[in-house]
Amino acid sequence: MTVDVLERPDVATGEEANVFVALTVADQLCGVPVLAVRDILGQHKITRIPLAPPEIAGSLNLRGRIVTAIDLRRRLRLPPAPAGQRRMSVVAEHGGELYALLVDRVSEVMRLETSAFEPSPPTLPPAWAQFSSGIYRLEGRLLVVLDVGRLLALNEAA
Amino acid sequence: MDELIVDFLSETNESIAELDVALVRLERTPDDQATLSSIFRLVHTIKGTCGFLGLPRLERVAHSAENVLGKVRDGALTATPDTVTLVLTALDRIKAIVAGLAASGNEPAGDDGELVEALNATAAGEGPKAATPAPAPIVAESVPEARQSEPVTTNQTIRVNVDVLEDLMTLVSELVLTRNQLFQLARTQENVGFAVPLQRLSHITSDLQEGVMKTRMQPIGNAWNKLPRLVRDLSREMDKQIELTMLGADIELDRQVLELIRDPLTHLVRNSGDHGLETPAERRAAGKPETGHITLNAFHEGGHIIIEIADEGRGLPLDKIRAKILNNGLATEAELAGMTDAQLQRFIFRRGFSTATVVTAVSGRGVGLDVVKTNIEKFGGTIDLKSVPGAGTTFTIKIPLTLAIVSALIVEAGGERFAIPQTSVVELVRAQKAGRGHNAAGSESVVERINDTPVLRLCDRLLPLVNLTDLLAMGESHNDDTGAYIVVAQVGANSLGIIVDRVFDIEEIVVKPVAPILRHITMFSGNTILGDGSVIMILDPNGIARATGIGAGGDSKAMSSSAMDAQHSTDRTAMLLFRAESEQKLAVPLGLVARLEDIPREQIELSCGAPVTQYRGKLMPLVALSDHLDAAKPRQPVLVFNDGDRSMGLMVDAIVDVVEDRLNIELSGARPGWLGSAVIAGFATDVIDTGYWLTQAWQDWFHGSAQSAMTQGERA
Predict the structure, then answer these.
(1) Of the partner residues A51, A66, A158, the one whose CB lies closest to the CB of residue B535
(2) For helices B255-271 and B227-238, what crossing angle results, to 10°?
(3) For the domain bounded by A2-157, which CATH number is listed?
(4) Do B512 and A56 touch (CB under 8 A)?
(5) CB contact, 8 Å: B532 with chain A?
(6) What domains does chain B contain, in order, with CATH numbers?
(7) B405 to chain A, minimum CA–CA distance in Å?
(8) pTM to 2 decimals?
C-alpha cells in the first residue's frame, strides 16, 4: 500500500515548505517536511539485520531498491511498539541512500501557518531535542517537527 | 580541448600499448616481418596524425623512430637489444609528450635534440650499433606465440562510454531479478496462458544478460600487455635473463575485475623477477639454465578464472620467514613448530612482512603483498601460494567471472534467511549431534565438542564450526534437536563449517552494497532482493572466518591475540598428558609436539649405544624419559619434536589425553628436565622441560638454529 503524497491536490501547489506529513509515534504527533518524503508505506515486510545498531529495524524492498528501515521509537529512546501493532513508514533520502522511518501511523498531510511555529523548549529530553527542529501549536495539540537529516545521520551520531 | 586532439590521444594511447608489446616481441624474433611491419605502421600513423594536427615535437621524435624502424624493416639494420632500447626510449618520450598534451591541451616544452640525434645516428648505421656489434638478443630461444595473435585492424568497433555499459548492466541485473520474481509467482498459479510468454521473456532476458555481459568482457591479455616491457626492463636492470611466457591471454574477464587485477599482477610479476629468480651466476651454481622463466597462465576452473604467476627461482626461504615472524611477534616459537610450511609461507601476505627484507637485500618497490591480497579480496578473489625451496614459487589468484550476478546458496539461521556465495561453498553436510544417533543410519558426520567449541569430523579431518545463529547474535539456535546443516566453506586455504538451521535452494542474486551505516559489519558482503521480493543479507565467508580467527594469512589481530594467549600463563593452553614410569600424569604443551608415534619395538635400533629409529628416511634419536620404562610392551609410544629438518623422539609409557587448561607452574622443579608442577585438569601434573630433553638427543640442538630455539621455560 503506497500513497503518493504529491498527488494530493491541496499539496501539489504553493509553498510546500510549510507542508508537513503528520505522523504519530508513541501517541505523540510529529511532522516531517513533505519535501523530504519520498514515499509512504503501509505495513511492509522487513528483514532483520543481525549485528546492526539497535535503531536499525532491518531492510525492505521498495520497488527493487533496498531501503534501510530505522525504528523511530528506538531512535527517540521510546519503549518498543506493542507486539502485533501495524506500523507504517516514511521513506526519505539521505546521502544518496533511501531510509524508511518506522512510525506508528501516518495520518495526513497538513499545511501549517508559520505564525504557529516556535523553537523547541529547552526542557525536551535530549533524544527529542536532538532531532526536533521546532514545535507547531495546533488546535488542542502540539506537532513536533522532526529533522529528517539528523534522524538519518546514524553514522555521525554513533 | 579540440575534439580531434581528444580522438588522437585515445588512439595514440592504444597504439603505444600495442607498440610496447610488439617491440619486445621483435627483440626476440628480430626477423619477424609481420611484427616489424605492424610496428612500423603504428609509428607511422602516430607521425602522420601529429603532423596533420600540428604537433611538431611529437612529429620529430616519431619521425626519427620511424627512420630507424624503416631501416630495420629494409634489412639495413638488425633489431638488437640496443636498437630496441633506443626505440623504446623514443616511445617513452612520445608517451610523456602525449601525457602533457592530455593534461594541458598543448605540447609540453622540451628538448628532444639528443634523442633525435641518437636515433638518426642509429638509422645511419653508426652509434650504439657500431659500439656493440650484434649482441645476442636477451632471450635466446623464441617461445611459441600462438596466443599472441596479430592485432585485427578490420574489426568493426565503436567507442561507448563505460558509464553507459555500467547502467545497462545494472538494468539487466534488475531485469533478471524481476524475471525470477515472475517465475516464482507463476509457479504458484495455474494460469497456462501466462506461461508461454513468460518463457519467451525469460529466454530473451537470458540472452540480453549474456550480451551485455559480453560487452563488459575483455581478454585478460589487456591487463598483461605492459608486462613484457616490464620484464624486459627488469632483466636489463638486474642483469638477469628472464623470459616471460604468457598463456591464456584470450581468457575474458569482466572489465571491472580486469582493472582491479592489473596492479596486483604487475606487482607479482615484478616480485618474481626481482626476488624470485636468481642471478645467472646463482642459477648456474644451482645447476639451472641461466635464463629464468616466469609463466603467467590464465584458465577457467569451475566458475572461476585462475591466474597463476610462476617463477622457477629460489623459492621462499622458510628459515628467514620464521625469524621474521618471531621478530615481529606474530607467533610464538611453539606455534611456529606446529605450523606447516604452507602456513609459514602465507605469512608473507601479512602487513609489514616485506618480502624485500625477508628474501633479498634488493628493495621492494610499490605496494607489499598485503596490499595485493587486500586488493584481490576486495573484488571477491583469493590468492594463495606454493613455494618449493630451490624450485620456485607459484602464486595462484582465483577470481570470480563477474561481479554483477552471483549464484548463492540460501540458508536460514535464527529465523532469517541469508545468502552464501556459491563460489565459496565446498559442500553441504547434514550432521548429527554427538551422543545422539552415533551409529544412526546415514549419519557419518557427528558434531563433537571440545570444551563447548563444536568441531566436525569430516573425511578424517577436524573442521572448525561456527554456529551462524550464535555468530550473528540472533538468539537461541533451533538446530539442536533436528540435527544441523553444515555449509562447508573455503576461505583461502582454510575450510570452515557454518552451522545453519535450514538450507533452501540456489538463487542467482545481484550483489548490492549495504547501506553506509551497516558497512562496519564485516560478516556481510552485501545484500540483495530475492525472487520472492524479500531483502536478504549476503554473508561474507572471509568476514566470518576473520571474526572467528580462522585463516593464518588473514587477520593479524586474530593471530596476534592467539599468540598472546600462549604467552600469558593465565590463558588456556592445550596440554598433552602422558605417563612414564608410574601412574603420575605428566604434561607438555601440545604446540611443542610435532607428532605422536607408536613405534613397533623391533624397529628401535641401537646406534653408538643410544636408541634410534628410522623415521621418514632418516635416523631419529630416541630418548627415554625415565630409565624404568615398561619395556615389555610390543609398541613404544613416542612424542616427536621437530626443529627444521631434525627430529627427536621422547619415549614414554602411554599417551593419556589432550586437555586445555591454564598452564601455571606452581612448584618449580629442581630436577633437570622438569619445569615443575601445575594443576592440570584437576590433578597435580609434572610439566617436562622440552629444551632439556632435546639436548639429550642432539648436543648442539640449540647451536644449530639459535633463532628457533624452543625456550619453553620462558613461556611457562
Answers:
(1) A66
(2) 10
(3) 2.40.50.180
(4) no
(5) no
(6) 3-131 (1.20.120.160), 162-219 (1.10.287), 221-400 (3.30.565.10), 405-557 (2.40.50.180), 568-715 (2.40.50.180)
(7) 15
(8) 0.47
